[in-house]
Amino acid sequence: MTLLQVMAADDAAEVRVRTTDDAVITAELARHGIAFDRWPVVAEAAALPSEELLARYADQVALLNESGRYKHIDIARIHPDDADPQWPARAKGAREKFLDEHRHAEDEVRYFAAGRGCFYLRLGAEVLAVVCEGGDLLSVPAGTPHWFDMGERPDFIAIRFFEEEDGWVGDFTGDAISGGFPSLDDLLTAP
Ligand SMILES: [Fe+2]
Question: pTM surpassing 0.90?
Answer without folding.
Answer: yes
